[in-house]
Design goal:
2 domains; mainly alpha; about 525 residues
Length: about 525
Amino acid sequence: MTLINYFWTLPPVLIVAWLLQRLFLAMKLHWNDQWSLPLLKILTIVVAVVYFLLGLYKYYAMQCGLWDFGIYDSMLSIAANDGIWMRDYRGGWFDHFSPVVLLLVPFYKLYDHPVWLIALQAAAMAAAAPLLYLTARRYFRQGAFPFLVTVMYCLNPYYSRMALYDFHIECLFAPLLFAAFYCYARNRFSWMTLLLAAAPLIKEDFVVPAAAAGLLLLSRRRTRFHGGIVFAAALFWTFFVLKIYYPHILGTAYWHYGRFELFAPTFQETAHNVLVMAGRIFTRNTLAVVLSVVLPFALLPLINWRAALLFWFPTLAIQLISGFEHQQLLMSHYSSAVLAVTPLAALWGARSLRIILRRKGCYTNQLRRKIYAGMSAMVIVMHVAYCELPLGRYYNYVTGCNPDVHGGVLSLPLNPAYWHELLYMADHAETFRRAAAKLPIRPDDDIVCQNDIGEEFLRRGRVHSLPGPEGEKPEFYLFDKINHAGHDRPEAINALLETLLRDPEYQLEYNADTGILFFLRKDVAARK
């Protein structure tokens, strides 16, 4: 995969943005501060409702896979019904430090259904918008910028990517971070410190933006003490997760250490690891990723050097140096920290830009309208061109603008043909459910599922991801040829299908029209 394609799509996008800016200026629009709060309320409600409904569609159209939607859903269901904490359908411990997720257990006790995950993700991400607006309003008492930076956050293509890809507890980070810096803007430094120090409780990954926030606070005299506490808290959580939680509480090594192989037995090996990770930043892919992050914010995050260097860059760099390609490309939840930090960096960048223009004596109403018009045009065009669409799983928009998975407003497709595909997948999901309902599954049966369809069976039996438990003969192997988003490699599926076809212990039920393949162990098929 190469990100060079992103550069080929940028020129027409930027040309359209420039033309749109000229249109805005020709219309001579004037901002009225009385519009801010009503528009903010409308924006927050619309964004929350649209992504909640799209999330429901994805669930009922079977577009939520075992990884990661099924992991969270099964973990909470098991905790609510069996009282076993932090275990998911795979049978082992949940592979992240995320105690905050347990706050959802009472909801699962009330009603054991993944709709809670869909609602939380849509609500949490939208609820961050008013907090960002209120923070920006502390620094821009008048004018359109507080609302504009909030729109930048809500229309960021990475917002749609995060909101539409399964469920991840990382959705809570943006509201927490914005709340922390709202406290900062109001000089409530103790509350800010507490919120930032608690960020890794959402997930251990957030030790990095928390530490980066600590560095930023350390660089300012009035918050130096609080910055030291936040930085120390980030170090504590890092030590706790790596040296206490995993080895002594869970009795296992940290599963994802291989993505950041920093320390090695010898100095030479450690130095080699450092060079390898640093080398991942200096690639042609990096510039495309950086542009994909800052262009929806009109390059503002790069203007304030302190926020860019101490806060924004470390948050992005930790993703770029990962040995996992999805993380380097900020796919799905890997963009969560950047999605939250970038609007704040843009806010400080806007403040710095205002100071620069005032010093030059050119900060006039006319220039301000031009700047706001240009920013608005870029935000709108980047969103329409690159926002994720509901069927675009396992895809990254910086590889280029693909009309098959992009082109919409709030992820509602502009391409009429896409709506036919949405209806078709919903109908196919219903067909699959009717066929699956006839399977004689018992609670103690082992079910090996293709990732895309596994969520459907989590409450019916013991579900396993492909290729299934080694050396065993599960009761069911279930596949769906049409609903395949790319998580399970086709060649691996084909090899397994050939093995099952030759196995005399299994019976095939296949519908060529629907592409649904069920392999039942023959003694199980006899239950019918």
